[in-house]
Amino acid sequence: MATIRPFRGLRPPKHLVEKVASRPYDVLNSDEARAEAEGNPYSLYHIIRPEIDFPVGTDEHDPAVYRKAAENFERFQREGWLVQDEKPCYYLYAQTMDGKTQYGLVVGAYVPDYLEGRIKKHELTRRDKEEDRMRHVRATNANMEPVFFAYPDQEEIDRVVARYAAREPEYHFIAPGDGFGHALWVIDDEADITRLTQLFAQLPALYIADGHHRSAAAALVGAEKASQNPQHTGQEEYNYFMAVCFPASQLTIIDYNRVVKDLNGLSDEEFLRRLEKHFTVEAKGEEMYKPQRLHNFSLYLSGKWYSLTARPGTYDDSDPIGTLDVTISSTLILDQILGIRDLRSDRRIDFVGGIRGLGELKRRVDSGETRMALALYPVTMAQLMAIADSGQIMPPKTTWFEPKLRSGLIVHKLKD
Fold first, then answer.
1. pLDDT digit string, tens, across residues 316-348
2. Where are the beta strands (DSSP E) in 330-371?
3. Using CA atoms, how far apart are residues 415 and 407, in angstroms rounded to an integer?
4. Which of 321, 307, 318 is nearest to 279 (CA)?
5. Phi, psi of 83 (to 5 degrees)
């Protein structure tokens, strides 16, 4: 069962929401955050990227930077740029991209569910990134940004969501830059709150789609606070962290592609010949070629596109990990031919989210920045959930979700 509960969200007034709202902290660097927040004192970047309030080059992990996050958070509340709701609520959050809208419920997710595996993950986390977010949560005593969960579709939850989505939203705006739509409704009816809590309790599990480091940090700080509190009851606000939960059928995973700086000493002809051992290689000329199905890949090399189709016997469809195209390409191309064995540390490889399109792969190769590019067919939600259910972990850089959650619409304080 999945335990959730409502919380008193801290939110910007309507007239400030577009100024407060920001992209997530981990999809841009300090320079980009500084540029986006320029001239905007209301931007959440002042809290989630507080190094922008220091001289350029300041270490974002300096203790003074975390203290600044806490100071700025207090200022936002003092100035009325973030105002707490009077009663615990759930919230409905909608995102629209390319004419498609997905609806997620903003809830307090239960820390023990994460620690005991009822909130399931599919990626490994790095301790240094966990520690960074833990320091930020400790400093602000809040979850400043939500994590992105999926849940198995449930018809009655859909009906409650549809009823609220038919109403006028509390917020509705188009985000600058990407042009994606964002809307939010407040669910404050006690009967609806009670029923949603009951319906989530019937779900076997929740699944982390995006935000593994934020999930880990939030849960670990919650557990830390519990261990430090002699009067701990389990009902404290720190036992919950903020998540947006979407039905799995509404989510789309897009491709996560690879670019490589060299061919490991091979010529184009030698590289293509080596590929033929495990793939059917078809030249596609200069017109961009996109992978058409699972086990079909797109290769861009020296101004030409190729279709690579893994030969039968090179993968095991009964193995949730072995059948992934990221596994096939990592093993048969990156490792065996190019000598790239550790995707997390090898500097010869880089990763490009599919939101940038095949044109970005072509640009990276044509510019001489990289030698070749490999585009993959995207993983499905069914594959992700099957892997999480099996307790296995996907290889690095497997999934890319769009649109990203907008930060700053709701904040969850760990002490109500």
1. 888 889 899 999 999 999 999 999 998 878 999
2. 349-353
3. 20
4. 307
5. -125, 130
Are 184 and 169 in contact, with CB atoms under 8 Å apart?
A: yes
Q: Is 243 helix (H, G, I), strand (E, B) or coil?
A: strand
* Integer angstrom CA distances of residue 34 from 39, 49, 348, 356, 408: 10, 8, 29, 22, 16
- Is 35 within 8 Å of 42 (Cβ atoms)? no
Tokens of 10: 């801290």
Q: How far apart are CA 283 and CA 226, in angstroms?
A: 60
Cα gap 184→93, rounded to integer Å: 5
> Residues with Cβ < 8 Å from 55, sequence gap 6 or more?
none
Please give the full DSSP string across 127-154, using - where no structure is assigned.
HHHHHHHHHHHHHHTEE-S-EEEEE---
Tokens at residue 188, please? 């404050």
List, for residues 5-17, the tens digit of each pLDDT value: 999 999 999 999 9
Count of beta carbons in the 10 Å neighbourhood of residue 285: 10
Query: Which two structure tokens, joined as six digits, stand for 134?
Result: 């833990």
Residue the block writes with tokens 């509190």: 229
Of the candidates 397, 377, 394, the residue with the CA atom closest to the CA atom of residue 296: 377
Report pTM.
Answer: 0.90
Other C-beta atoms closer than 10 Å to the C-beta of 78 total 9
